[in-house]
Amino acid sequence: MVNDFKLSSDEKYSFLPASLRNDIMNAGTRKSIFVEGYDDQAIFNILYGEEYFKFIRTGDCEEVKRSVEQCVIHLKDDKRFYGVIDRDLRMDEDVEKERNNLCYEGRLFIFFERYTLENYFIEPAVLAEFLCGKSAQYTDLRKLISDIYDRESLIAYVTSILNQIFQCLEKIGAANLTIRYFDKSKGFLESTISCDEVKDRIKHRLKNSSISERTIEMKFDFFLQFIKNSNSVQKFASAKAYFFILFSKKIEEITGVNNIKLNNHKSELARILKDLGLSGELMDLLNFIKN
Questions:
Q1: How far is 160 from 24, CA to CA, in rounded Å?
Q2: What DSSP line would sit under 17-50, residue for residue?
């Protein structure tokens, strides 16, 4: 009887890869949410728990979209399957168009306000708690800032650091938009890029094209002003690719503590974010997958 059930379930989901079929069957009656990678799966489990949802990693955003579309086609009456992907370097109209694509039947959630899930950690209160080692109850997280600051003063201090970093991220976001505009086959700027190098690195990326340096500079300036005027740096610069590195370097300069790697502390940051209370799109996503 057990073997018959497994065979029946396996046949039901045969249109999906074996690894996804196994995860769906393990989900039982919980909703299955397709996400991109291991980090997304771990973060969502912390933010939303595993009692009602099974977050299933697929590998990348294209696999998430394909999985949702296939579930819509093959499981018309089963509304337990959703997908969540990062915004990445999409323009607003592209995000809206993809969200509303009929092939997903409204079951694909794309972050709109921020580049990646990790960008939701770029909050003064979250980073202030991290610097205080307030996630130490979960892991052996170091306390990086002394007790001379009260909470309000520390948040203001972190905000001043973020404002400095955002000026660099605006340039990086504008640079990557420029590269994508002229040649989508070219890779984006390196994660270790310094702000002073940005313009030179754009030209280097596009050096084999027939585009003049002046044309490249004009497009870069256009995108830079667009990001500044729309206050949308969080939409066009990746936290995990750029911010985590820049913030770690800044804190190392201030504290003298070396080898601070925010990419290694995503679980702690997620716990802090949850403790402070979910809002905005993170709450929108919860409501989306609950429906």
A1: 45
A2: -HHHHHHHHHHTTSEEEEESSHHHHHHHHHHH-S
